[in-house]
Amino acid sequence: MSATPPVTITIDLTTNLRAPDAVLPVGGTLGFMPSGNLLVLKRLTSGRAEVYEFTPGEGSWTEVGKAEIKSSSGSRAGGAISPDGTRCVYGPKTAKVYGWPGGKAMASLGAVKYSLGANTVGFSPSGAWVVVADNGRISPRQRTVTVFDAGTGEKRAAIKTDEWCFVQAGMLDDDTVVTLGLHLDWDVAKGWTDDDLVLGCYDVTTGAARWRRKIHDGQRFALEPVARQVWIADDGAPHGTGAELCLAADDGRVLRSIAFSSGWRAGRLPPVVVRPGLVAVGVVPVDGKPQDARFVLLDLEAGRQVATLGEGRGTDYNFDCFATAHTASQWLASVDFFGNETYLWRLA
């Protein structure tokens, strides 16, 4: 498949301003269930967390389930919700898989060397497997991501990589792991790396890299399993005016490149595919800061912006809790910057 011609979309924050259609009094890791109900995994103190289930209603959403889960204490924690909504994984170091409803512990996953980051755990689309990557600044000889059986905690594979540490990991399918890690260009004088990231795609069975791509600045990726696509922003240079890229999951080819009108660049949050051709994207003023970002809704086929989400305000969206959408109902959910609330838009 050849790439579609690059498209440049004009950003105008006065275009169809959309306040949230609903606001929930809890924020955290988000996941829509197939039914359209929303699960929220909220981190508390001392390793504890709460799981909430909300169902849409006339004019508001109703809480229909809640459970507390406990894990080892730690300053940060990784969390994810399975696509079918029957499991979640949570933990600052030794992650555990919990069943839903009820929040009962099902399996304990092997401890990482240092700590889990907020986005360094992820389920496969089937929910059968969990990928875990260490977010700590670890020895080059210990750079691995591990795939576990979500039901038993049994280790399926350990994939060796060339990254120094990881900021994100996910699974495109039961046999494909995608990671984003800090590039290993060690500067002895600085005692740090070059701050570039590597987007990697690995085969679970063989551990081999299918493809790798160097990414500039601090972007995060989004996976579209049905279309077998990976979305990520690539600035081309730190803080440059770059584009959102849609990559083929099988070989990393650029399928689509979306640039923005003068004065805007790609934001750090991953885009959210509401449905094929309709994508919510974070954009930032070229001379602004990450907190000046906006979510805009783009019609890719028409090559235009169709809405501004959040009434044109500066970002209220949490970098550790990615936004998500339910394709059938076209609800989009996002967490405020402080992780206290969840905003919902009906985009149908």
Automatic annotation (TrEMBL):
From the Swiss-Prot or TrEMBL record, give the protein name. WD40-like Beta Propeller Repeat
Q: Which organism is it from?
A: Nannocystis punicea
Record lineage: Bacteria, Pseudomonadati, Myxococcota, Polyangia, Nannocystales
